[in-house]
Amino acid sequence: GNEDIGYDLFLESPPGWYAGFDDLSAQGGANSASTGLMLEDGQMTIGISFTPPQVMTLAGAELTVNLRVIAQSEESKSTLYQLPLIVRQISELTVDLESSFSSITPGNTISLQYSVENIGNTDLDLSPRLQLPQGWSQNTVLDDFILNWTQSRNFIVSITAEDDAKSGQISLVMESDDKSWNHVEDIVVALVPKPV
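User: That's the sequence. What structure does it adopt?
Assistant: Structure tokens below.
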């Protein structure tokens, strides 16, 4: 402008979201603030933080935050600026083993029930892979599948402890593009004494 003047600032957020000024107000994060007196042709950098809703928002969603600027003058001239937001992609998955087991003797077969839940905001194309200790065999074929955002899925994997099975770790690995998640569980093979 062509005179020293201050401005009142107001943020209007999309439903469920919250926008606040970082350091302009006495209480950080408030959605209204004042610049104080600004010199003619002066500039000010304003920090704004955006808080998403508790419910996950789909990746790529486009939102708008309105910034209303009102001049502290007799005319109280008001200007509206629209600040575009795009929700970034978050790929996140939980992998849990629902089954419980104690020590296993060679020759036995057990079923492992796993649950996976997509807690990110984008669909995941998953490739499951089971890693077993020496002497174990996998009886179930694990096919690739798509897990949409907010979805979960359970599946069962059958494994057998062969005669030479060793104790160790069972690891279910879920791979998607350049990310992977896993669940690791210790398993103990109980050796049966051989008759003399």
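The chain has a mean pLDDT of 91.
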